Amino acid sequence: MASSSNSSTALVTSSRRNYYYDVFVTFRGEDTRNNFIDFLFDAFETKGIFVFRDDTNLQKGESIGPELLRAIQGSHVFVAVFSRNYASSTWCLQELEKICECIEESEKHVLLVFYDVDPSEVRKQSGIYSEAFAKHEQRFRQDSQMVSRWREALKQVASIFGWDLRDKPQS
Question: Can you give the pTM of this predicted structure?
Answer without folding.
Answer: 0.85
